[in-house]
Amino acid sequence: MGWLTRLSEGLAKTRERVKGSLTRLVSRGPDPAVLEELEETLIAADLGVHTVQRLMERLQSEPGGFASAGPGAGRILAVLKSTLLETLQRCEGRPLEALVEQGPKPFVVLAVGVNGVGKTTTVAKLAQRLKAAGHKPVLVAADTFRAAAIEQLAVWGGRTGVDVVRHQHGSDPSAVVFDGLAAAKARNADVLLIDTAGRLHTKSNLMDELKKMKRVLARELPGAPHEVLLVLDGTTGQNALSQARQFHEAVGVTGLAVTKLDGTARGGIVVAIAEELKIPVRLIGVGEAVDDLQAFRAQEFVEALFGPAS
User: Fold this and answer.
1) pLDDT tens per residue, the chain (310 residues)?
2) What residues contact residue 112 under an 8 Å CB cut-off, 6+ apart?
3) Beta-strand pair 227-233/107-112
4) d(CA 212, CA 71)
5) Does residue 225 have a cis bond before it (omega within 30 degrees)?
């Protein structure tokens, strides 16, 4: 199954919910209640209040507006897609492969995010993608507060033939980062991918620990980390937006990876984050397989989210 098909299937719940409202809107004509239903459906899909407001204003400014027969489903869908595409194209980030290709060596990626978003898996898949593209990655298991995370990354490393730098469970995460960077330099690695904790089981604050890692990296390699990649779970909707705000304020997020978009009716959260925070979206994921993590492309996403106009 091709990527576009998997993406389309993954976003099916969001697409069907919106199309149901469109069908009712067209069949019942210029009914304010149905128009309100469409607005509520778009907000429920987590497209973001600002984006939805702009969309509704555009729909009502259409020739004839909703005063008479109103525009047909095809026209409504076209306005919806063009509005979302404008927002997303502004935040269509350059693929990480391109950043690594053109950036300093080793190119350091610090992956952050709360536990349960698929951060460790995303980092491992990214390592495999970069290796397939001809780069030499090194993985760092800096989530030392979860023994399972260390083991999971080690298993992925063994499976893909990528070196993994790790310490014992409970070690200082910044010490692992220090050793990981030294190993990447010694092994002439192209890219260093660092998996971090999503919460700490000590009195330390998570954001303080991440800031400490950034300081260690910057001290040992000026300019590092070159990418602070925030991994978000697309099924959490507005919680993902809240997390994005918090991490961005604390550690300066430079790119986003949105996972678990398959099977959620909240696929529009990517739009809401792009609208509010203007952070480049690098990657989206719709499943467990390595190929289910791909570079984000605005046009593909909008087509998969709403399908062809009809």
Assistant:
1) 577 888 888 888 878 877 777 777 667 665 677 778 888 888 888 888 888 888 888 877 876 555 444 556 677 788 888 988 988 898 888 899 999 999 999 999 999 999 889 999 999 999 999 999 999 999 999 999 999 999 999 999 999 999 999 999 999 999 999 999 999 999 999 999 999 999 865 556 899 999 999 999 999 999 999 999 999 998 888 888 889 999 999 999 999 999 988 766 677 788 888 888 889 999 998 878 888 889 999 999 988 888 765 4
2) 119, 196, 210, 228, 229, 230, 231, 247, 251, 253
3) parallel
4) 55
5) yes
